[in-house]
Amino acid sequence: MATLLRGVGRPLCAFRGSPGPSAGVPLRAVSHGAGLLYPEHIPTSLLQKVLLAAGSAGMALYNPYRHDMVAVLGETTGHRALKVLRDQMKRDPEGAQILQERPRISLSTLDMGKLRSLPEGSFGCAYLHFLDVNKFHQDASLFHQWEIHQGDLLQKVSPDTRAPTRFVDDEELAYVIQRYREIHDMLHTLLGMPTNILGEIVVKWFEAVQTGLPMCVLSALFGPIQLSAQSLQLLISELIPWAVENGRRAPCVLSVYYERRWEQPLQALRQELGITEPPLRVEGLV
Amino acid sequence: MAAPRSWALWSFCGRGWSRAVSGYRVPGLRSSWPRGPLGARLLSQEKEATETHFGFETVSEEEKGGKVYQVFESVAKKYDVMNDMMSLGIHRVWKDLLLWKMRPFPGTQLLDVAGGTGLAWILGDAEELPFDDDKFDVYTIAFGIRNVTHIDQALQEAHRVLKPGGRFLCLEFSQVNNPLLSRLYDVYSFQVIPVLGEVIAGDWKSYQYLVESIRQFPSQEEFKEMIEDAGFQKVTYENLTSGIVAIHSGFKL
Q1: What is the CA radius of gyration of chain A?
Q2: Which pLDDT belongs to residue A26?
Q3: ipTM score of the complex?
Q4: Facing residues of B58 across strands?
Q5: Are residues A27 and B56, on separate chains, in Cβ contact within 8 Å?
Q6: Nearest to A21 by CA among A34, A7, A40
Q7: Measured between CB atoms, which of A25, A69, A166 is closest to B186?
Q8: Residue from B53, B185, B187 whose CB has the most chain A CBs within 10 Å, to mutate
Q9: B77 CB within 8 Å of a chain A CB
Q10: Is B133 helix (H, G, I), strand (E, B) or coil?
Q11: What is the DSSP letter of B34?
């Protein structure tokens, strides 16, 4: 244990986020300024990541309102999948541009006026409609906020992701996961899925196939637990196969520069990505 | 332990100690040192550029109070749950031991500083107490003094407000005296505690501050000397749980 703790090198040392003098004690000086890879970065050791992953998974199951836990789970378990995603993006010209320019989707970057002026049937118009229908709020504190409303589970949706990435130890990968979160609403729009529980699960299946992120896989597998028998039956017989098929057929959805395609007709974009109409309407189902 | 509802600091139990004892638990960590309405002290010129620690970070003395305040604002909601989770309930034993050592009786004028719960509340600053001299029989501070910017001033104030014959008692995290336990304690502190903070309270940074501030606090002997410097006599300390916490005691004679 003593040799383990002597900071020989990151892979050998389970306790170190970064090398430092004494056993088990990460150098906090490193967490301020110099050692951080990006502003919100919290360097973590392997042990901490394992504990965080387990803890966040448990807490997310125990309290589904803890969306921050889902985010933490994604960050602590996603390293490998994020690398694969990043490499996929690099190989694609549009994806490479996204990695280069690092566009962000938030209330401050979206030109709402422009979006509203877009023609009916355009992707941008459909996206805006999606935000409107799902009660887009300016001060959503998390990417999604769940709310029980008259027996339905509705989500308050906002393009604002105020939960920045913290536990990814690579600044490019930190952007990739942030981008993944920020295009989630776009996927809803493309797939024609509402933000009720069933709709979210369908999107998660699509994302799981597309990204391979363990957090998506876990959500896809565990999400359906809370469904009614009828919804579960529809999910398994129709929606999941459809989501998986589309997920496989579509190119990497993170390589699509959505902000440059607002005017593109929604149908044309769907066709380009190989996304077909959903097999049934999911609104009103729980 | 009831969760504190405000960031007010004090618990001044003027009378009816027996009444207090039955339902009374020694308040835990609950300190905030705003440069607030009472004891708003102008910084003297010499203090302007002085730096101090905030966990392992270096900050100006001016900043520290505010930063500590933010930590406690942040941890307030889940305070009791977190204390239980982090110490596996042992913090209650430590606080009981403090009370036992104090052996209060009806009529004891007790001042508990940085108290989480209590009977009567007064807001103030540990470095400048809103009380007259020679007022209390016992002054206690449990898991609070670590967060004070100028510990020596807090100690001097404690000395001032105590009656002659009065007793100072401090329960605080200290240095572990057993090398093996010390290693385990470090691993637990730095690897597990912030994770618990994140998972339970959604707050990594406050709990990172907590474990770092423990490391920054003087050792048992050093703190004993600081207490003596403030004028206390017959200063002793007792380690609990191999020095994870210590109770320091001193008398104003």
Answers
A1: 20
A2: 52
A3: 0.78
A4: B53
A5: yes
A6: A7
A7: A25
A8: B187
A9: no
A10: coil
A11: -
Task: State the virtual CA torsion across B32, B36, B41, B46 in degrees, nearest 10.
Answer: 50
Whether A55 and B56 lie within 8 Å, measured CB to CB: no
| Total length of chain A | 286
- The whole-angstrom separation of Cα B223 and Cα B84 is 26
Question: Among A196-205, A262-271, B39-48, B69-78, which range has the highest average pLDDT?
Answer: A262-271
- Is A172 within 8 Å of A86 (Cβ atoms)? yes
Q: Does A56 touch chain B (CB under 8 A)?
A: yes
* Min Cα–Cα distance to chain B from A1, Å: 10
How do residues A112-152 score in pLDDT, each as one tens digit?
888 889 999 999 999 998 888 876 543 333 234 333 322 23
The whole-number pLDDT of residue A159 equals: 57
Please tell me whether residue B240 adopts helix, strand or coil conformation. strand
- Taking the alpha carbons of A140, A146, A148, A153 in that order, is the dihedral positive or negative? positive
Inter-chain touch B183–A23, beta carbons under 8 Å:
yes
CB < 8 Å to B208, chain A: 28, 31
* Chain A residues lying within 8 Å of B194, measured CB to CB: 48
Token readout for A95 is 């994806």
* B189 contacts in chain A (CB < 8 Å): 24-25
pLDDT digit string, tens, across residues B110-137: 999 987 655 677 888 889 999 999 999 9
pLDDT of residue B122: 80
Is pLDDT at B72 greater than 90 in this prediction?
no
Q: Which of A69-83, A221-235, B185-199 has the lowest mean pLDDT?
A: A221-235
What confidence score (pLDDT) does residue A58 get? Answer: 93
Q: Which of B230, B76, B37 is nearest to B150 (CA)?
A: B230
Here the tokens at position A175 are: 């952007």
Chain B interface includes A42 (CB < 8 A): yes
Distance to chain A for B208, nearest Cα, Å: 9
pTM of the model: 0.77
Q: What 3-state class would DSSP assign to B244?
A: coil
Q: What is the mean pLDDT of residues B160-187?
A: 95
Residue A25 has pLDDT above 80, yes or no: no
Count Cβ atoms within 10 A of the Cβ of residue A146 and give its class: 0-12 exposed, 13-18 middle, 19 or more buried: middle
In order of A79, B115, B143, B147, B168, the CA distances from B12 in angstroms are: 53, 9, 17, 20, 15
Residue A24 and residue B55: Cβ atoms within 8 Å? no
Per the CB < 8 A criterion, the answer to whether B210 and B29 are in contact is no
